[in-house]
Every structure is written in C-alpha cells, then in structure tokens.
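Annual report, structural modelling task.

Input specification for the iron/sulfur cluster complex:
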Amino acid sequence: MVNVGHIPMGGSHPIRLQSMTTTDTMDTMATVEQCLRMAAAGCEYIRITAPSVKEAENLQNIKEELRKRGCMAPLVADIHFTPNAAEVAARIVEKVRVNPGNYADKKRFETIEYTDESYQAELDRIREKFIPLVRICKEYGTAMRIGTNHGSLSDRILSRYGDTPIGMVESALEFIRICEELDYFDIVISMKASNTQVMVQAYRLLVEKLDEEGLQPYPLHLGVTEAGEAEDGRIKSAVGIGTLLEDGLGDTIRVSLTEEPELEIPVAAKLAERYTHRANHSFISELKEYPINPYAYKRRETQEVLTVGGSNVPRVIVDLSRVKVSDYKELKSIGHFYLPEPDKWTMNDQGADFVYTGSSPIEFMLPMGLKEIVDYEVWSMLPDQSNKFPYLTAGTALKLRKEELPVVTAFVEVWSEDLTEELTALLRMHAHFIAVLRTANEHAMPAIRRIFSIFISEGITTPCIVRRDYGAIDNESLHLYAATDVGGLLIDGLGDGILLGRSAAQIIPQKEELDAIKILNALSFGILQAARTRMSKTEYISCPSCGRTLFDLQETTAMIRKRTDHLKGIKIGIMGCIVNGPGEMADADYGYVGVGKGKIALYRGQDVIKKAVPAEQAVDELIELIREDGKWINPMEM
Ligand code: SF4
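The model returned the following structure:
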C-alpha cells in the first residue's frame, strides 16, 4: 500500500482512477479549470506535465488555487528528461512520475555495444542522478511512479535486452533497487505500451521478477499508451487493462484517450467497477498445471476446419438469430454489399466470415465468402445444405449415435459448466468439429481460459470460437466488457473466432436489431485488431496530448483518420511533440509529429523523412509518403 497524499493506493483499497491534464502547465487558470472538471468526473489523482523547472515551480500556484477552490485531489508531476524539474516538483506535489528510459539518459536511437564495465558505469551515473530525488521524496513523504514505456527505453537497455517486455521490466528494476537500498518504498510501477500483447506480458513479468528478487509487491498503475480515440481507444484500453484486471493485477488505471481528460474517467470507472461487484462469482476450480506461457504470445495449436483454426486469422461470426434476414441489403450491416450494377457481391475489410441464424435460415443465396451456421434440428431438415453448417448443443451431440452425427463441419457448444470427459472425447474423435466455448460464470474470461487450458493439456486441437452474450448494458460497457472477456484470451493466443450477441429478452424492432448487429460486427473486428490477431483497418497510435502538445490532437487525428481509415493494417502515429513522440510511436509505420508551432515532422518508421512541413500541407504530404511506398489505395465507394 502506498499513500498518495490522503488517498492510499494498493492493498485492499479500491482501484484508483486517474488522468492527466492537456493544458499548458504555465497557464495556471486553464490548468486549474481542467483539474476541477477532472475531479468532478471522479478523477482521484491528477497528473500534470512538468517539462522544465519553471513548470515544476508553477505546480505550487496550481496546487494553491485548487486547494483554495476545495479540490483536494493529490497531484502528480510528470517528468521526462529533467531531474532538476523532478526535484522541484517532489517538494510540491504528492507524487512524481519518472520514466526510467529518459530520466538520466538522452535518447540517441543508437545501438551501443556495452561491456560489463561500461554498463556498470552507466548504472553508477544513473544512481548519482536519481538518489537526490529519492532523498527528497523520503523527506517530503512524496510517492513516486517508476513508469516504463515500451517506446522510450534507454539505449543501454535496448542494447542488452532489446525492445522487449524483459527490457521494460529491467529498466524499472534498476530504479527500484536504488530506492530499496535507500529504504524508500512509496513506489508505484507501470509498464505501458501501445502494443497490448507487450504491455500485458511486461506487467506479468514485472510481478514475477519482483517476487523472484525479493523486492516489495508494489502497487501497479495500468495503462495502454496512445490508445487512440472513440471506440477503438476504448477497445484497445480494455484489452490491455481488462486482461490484467482479470488476472487480479492493477491498483490504479489511466485510460489514455485522444479526448478531453475528464472523458477518460467514466471509461476507467466502468473497467474498475466490474470487479467491485464480482466478489461472489461461481467458483472456478484450480488446474493441476497451467499450460499457457503468460509472458510470450503463442497461438494455441489447432487443426484447420473449413477456414477456422490452423494458421487462419480468427474468424468473426455474427449472430443474426434474432432478425429475419429476407433482403440482401440487410447484410450491409455486416460488411457484405450487393451491387446491382454489375450484379455482384462485394465486401469491405470488416465483412463477417459466418452468420449464425439459429432456427431461421436465410433463404437467398449468400455471397461467396460468407457461410451460415444453423441450429442442428433445423439444418437437418433443410433440402439444400450447401454453405450451411449445423450448430449442436453438447447435449444433442452426445445424444446422437455415431452414424447420426453430421459428417460436415459442425459447431458444438461447450459450456464451462458442462465440460465432461465424454465431451472432450467426442471433440478429440471428430476432427471436423469446431467448439463454441461459453460460460455462465460472471468471471467469464478465466472460466473460458480454463477450458482452453484443459484442451491444451489434453492435446485437444479442436478450433474454438469464443461466444459471449451481453444483456441490457450500454454500448460503452458492451465494448469494454467484450474487449476484456475475449481480448484477454486472444492476447494469449487462445481463440480461433469470436461470436458476440445481445441476450436482452425483449423484442426490439428489426431496424434497431440491425443497428446493434452492425455494432457487434465492428466490435468483433476491433477486438481482434486490438489484440493484434487480425488487422482489418488502419491503426492510429495517437497520444492523449499534454502540456507539450503542439497542435490540436483531436482535430488532427480526425482529419488524418478521415483520409486514411481505409488503409487496412497500416499503423500511423500521431504525436503532439518531438520530445516523446518518436519514442512513443515505436510501433508505427508512419509518424506525424509536432516539431514546432505549425510545423510537423513526418516519419517512416523511426526515420524522419520530412523535418518541418507546414501543418496545412502535412496530411497531403503524409499521404504522398504512403503513396511513394506503394501502400496507398483509393477508398472504395459504396
Ligand atoms: S507525445 Fe508529447 S504531446 Fe503527446 S502526450 Fe507524450 S509528451 Fe505529451
């Protein structure tokens, strides 16, 4: 447990919510007003950037004004590159955040060969720069976050560990060891990355290494950096943060969206709240062995059945069982379009792979590339079964005699509550079956992960679809919960497809059902992309903005998105400043980075291609760069 001002974190305290201001720290009143809006939204800790000593000093004015106006939220100073600013801030605010990748190091993007001696000399240099801050924190009762970012590891760490989760962990451990030597323990740790797989692996590895080295089990601050905006930002944050919360890790969260900071808080609250009400979920019995490596991505080995499993990307199945599909136009909501001229079907990058129609099979011919799943009882009576595949409950599958079982690809439902040896034997024997995994357990992700674990331990290579139905919840919760429940499995290589549905009992008009289906289809593709298992759209790695930001991030992101969101699989970094931007977008194919007022630098990977393009031409120039690389395609009109 760590005290951050009057609000403790860790131990049995609730998961704390926090965010960061986007105003210029020297603009006291604008920063105060923004802090007040954040606090009113439920933000428990407020982080403010302090790029230099003058901003660090101004934290005093901000703090005084806030306290005068009744806002007691603990303040956190965000420090990069400037130990002297940290030392000033630590005397004023309740917590300082330092980035071990740049606290005492300048990023040179060089791979320097270090001998053991030169490596140790670097560590000694860091000690010398870092110890004064630790002493000040001890004296003033200030807490500290040691916040590693995947995109800003030091050259020293990169040279020895590479751009890896273990490199991120070691980067923090170097600082933590110094703190413990000085008997300073008011530490919170983060391991943020924009890549959700890297982020999850790094946090898990950190917990393991702290334990292994006998260091304290410090509270964890969870976050996915540069998650983006709108639904995509929420899905990506939930895949990363939600997966760790499901694992029981995480004491405070920050959802980094390219939106106003107060809008991040309700999202963080929804993620955290789910665990406050879940104490009495049904018991999930322990496994004798856990066959999944939590520190590295490895897709579970399966046989290919139809186009599912094996090396196929995970499939999207859309639940149409609650609507009557009588017109081809209704398939538009799942990415399949009929063009009367020239009389052919086409699909966009988010065209569903399968539809599940329950007991109401579609009567017209479906487009190539779209297959239909029908309840077994109805399917078995169909005169024409081409392109249609049966869906069996486990009870039906086990009841049928061997010669009665379908000889075509069949989908067999497996509830975590009903997993028996008889059922696993049936799956093992029938290499043309696909399992559809479900659970009634409120703690769904681990309940389904347990089925996967049993399958792996017992050598069952049946491809598996993860099916989740959600009741009457709002759209934002739907996005966050589904991304957590399914994304948390995909991130560990579990799942060959996704089937999301709404279990609301009431009948709603067909038009509303189709709108809901459209959302579920886009959500399914969004989760696959956020878990980095299937790319179907452009990925934007946009920073949340802060006091260093040199242009309007929301407006610019919207403008870039409008022109490029049809470029499937391309990753574009949109970063507010040159100080941290290039490091933070380590994962991007192209970068759009603020270098000065009205001036933009354009990057290809980590290389600057254009240094100071006027902002009004920068989007055109970015597109030109993509075009030069042969990656530009014209948007499809439909
Ligand atoms: S990239 Fe720069 S502008 Fe964006 S949040 Fe990070 S420090 Fe602030």
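Residues 36 and 71 are 7 Å apart (CA to CA).
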